[in-house]
């Protein structure tokens, strides 16, 4: 992998170790020294390009290694340069290996949860033209020595088939200990460790055995005091988690309240404690006002459109049904309902109230409600929520019914002091 600058001068050693500072290594005596900021820029370019190449080789949608991710994490990158290409010009990069310590919850061979902080293989790439030439092994071996770990003590972040074969061939790592997260650990991971008292499900269940068993825990880092078993989640976030697309709940539940300013501290991306690998933080519950506005003003969910379009009898039938219903019940038939009566007034009473309410000062809200209640007589039904969301008929009050008019909303808001004006 070549670059438009002198890689050979930039990285004097065959293997360069970079940490989060991405500091350019000291140059060989006698070589001209460009401004330090330029050198760092070159280092960042190399890291970014290696990350992109690795992502492409692994068919990832986005790089998991980049200069900015390096700077925001305590990872270490081992970069191998091609010394044979030195004569040909500015040198070239062969590949890289990225490692880092991570707090993980791993299962041992008896399916007990263990909180550990092993050194993890996070990203590994050798240029396509140079694979199967022993470069991967050279880099890996160097890392093992530098980090002073044994291969079986490592956790591997979602290894590719090539990497599994590589580990099997060079380090005889074959039998994995099944996990519920994306990390792979091998037999021997828990060897020569000491089991703490009663920290795992298994240990709790088999307390007698736990008293004498060796403790499963990965190497190296001192961990905070063990938490109660209930606090331990059986998953740990992989560095690749951010690649997953979050699945949103359907409209209108996906409408989070507007924020005036972005949060001061976004959640950390690679910390594993307490994070589910499947989702980001859940959105706060939609406030009632926002929900009401959505119900009245937003277009239908695409699924509803699809159902209406594909069900030949469904859409007209639904419209026919709604057009025969008394004013106000249309919205009732397709809105959220809450069980238990809050207001004893009948739909008609509600309608009456609406008509009076329209004369009053709550123009905006009232006119919206008017649209809502008169909708039954319209040709094109109001777009609210999917037709399948039918409200229970009696014994429940509905947000879309006649009684749910301007006055009702105002009362509700005044009672809760949420009126925006
Ligand atoms: C946590 C992670 O990073 S997962 C992602 C790992 N990276 C990738 O999959 C990217 C593409 N692959 C690569 O970059 C490289 O193949 C690496 C990094 C996995 C291995 O580097 P190499 O320099 O090829 O390894 P090296 O030459 O030392 O060892 C070769 C052995 O690796 C394994 N291997 C390497 N390439 C392949 C391949 N295409 N198919 C199957 N096994 C392979 C084999 O065991 C091979 O031995 P063999 O040739 O006798 O079958």
From TrEMBL:
Biased composition (Basic and acidic residues): 226-235, 355-367
GO terms classed as biological process: dentate gyrus development; microtubule cytoskeleton organization; neuron development; NLRP3 inflammasome complex assembly; positive regulation of NLRP3 inflammasome complex assembly; regulation of fat cell differentiation; regulation of microtubule cytoskeleton organization; response to mechanical stimulus
Family annotation (Pfam families): Acetyltransf_16
CDD domains documented for this protein: NAT_SF
Cross-referenced InterPro entries: Atat, GNAT_ATAT
Chain ranges of the N-acetyltransferase domain: 1-190
The EC number(s) this enzyme carries: 2.3.1.108
Post-translational modification: Autoacetylation strongly increases tubulin acetylation.
UniProt GO cellular component terms: axon; clathrin-coated pit; cytosol; focal adhesion; Golgi apparatus; microtubule; microtubule bundle; mitotic spindle
Bias kind Low complexity: ranges: 386-395
Protein name: Alpha-tubulin N-acetyltransferase 1
Species this protein is from: Phocoena sinus (Vaquita)
Lineage: Eukaryota, Metazoa, Chordata, Craniata, Vertebrata
């Amino acid at each position: 992998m070549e670059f438009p600058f002198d890689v050979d001068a930039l990285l004097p050693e065959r293997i360069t170790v970079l940490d989060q500072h991405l500091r350019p290594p000291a140059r060989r005596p006698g070589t001209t020294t460009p401004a330090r900021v330029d050198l760092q820029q070159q280092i960042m370019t190399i890291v970014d390009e290696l990350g992109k190449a690795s992502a492409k080789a692994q068919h990832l949608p986005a790089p998991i290694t980049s200069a900015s991710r390096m700077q925001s994490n305590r990872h270490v990158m081992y970069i191998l340069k091609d010394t044979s290409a030195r004569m040909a010009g500015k040198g070239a990069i062969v590949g890289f290996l990225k490692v880092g310590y991570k707090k993980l919850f791993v299962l041992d061979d008896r399916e007990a949860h263990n909180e550990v902080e092993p050194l993890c293989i996070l990203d590994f790439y050798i240029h396509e033209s140079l694979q199967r030439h022993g470069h991967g092994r050279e880099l890996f071996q160097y890392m093992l020595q530098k980090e002073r770990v044994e291969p079986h003590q490592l956790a591997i972040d979602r290894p590719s088939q090539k990497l599994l074969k590589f580990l099997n061939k060079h380090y005889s790592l074959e039998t994995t200990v099944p996990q519920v997260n994306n990390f792979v650990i091998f037999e021997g991971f828990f060897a020569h460790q000491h089991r703490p008292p009663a920290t795992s499900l298994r240990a709790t269940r088999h307390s007698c055995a736990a008293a004498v068993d060796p403790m499963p825990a990965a190497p190296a880092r001192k961990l905070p005091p063990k938490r109660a078993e209930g606090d331990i989640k059986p998953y740990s976030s992989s560095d690749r988690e951010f690649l997953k697309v979050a699945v949103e709940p359907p409209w209108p539940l996906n409408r989070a309240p507007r924020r005036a300013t972005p949060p001061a501290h976004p959640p950390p991306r690679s910390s594993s404690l307490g994070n589910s690998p499947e989702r980001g933080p859940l959105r706060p519950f939609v406030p009632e006002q926002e929900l009401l506005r959505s119900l009245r003003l937003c277009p239908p969910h695409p699924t509803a459109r699809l159902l209406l379009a594909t069900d030949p009898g469904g859409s007209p039938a639904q419209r026919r049904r709604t057009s025969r219903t008394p004013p106000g019940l249309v919205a009732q038939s397709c809105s959220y309902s809450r069980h238990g009566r809050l207001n004893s007034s009948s739909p008609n009473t509600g309608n009456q109230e609406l008509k009076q309410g329209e004369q009053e000062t709550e123009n905006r809200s009232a006119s919206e409600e008017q649209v809502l209640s008169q909708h039954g007589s319209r040709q094109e039904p109001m777009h609210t929520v999917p037709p399948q969301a039918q409200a229970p008929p009696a014994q429940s009050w509905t947000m879309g019914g006649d009684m749910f008019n301007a006055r009702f909303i105002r009362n509700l808001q005044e009672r809760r002091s949420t009126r925006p004006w």
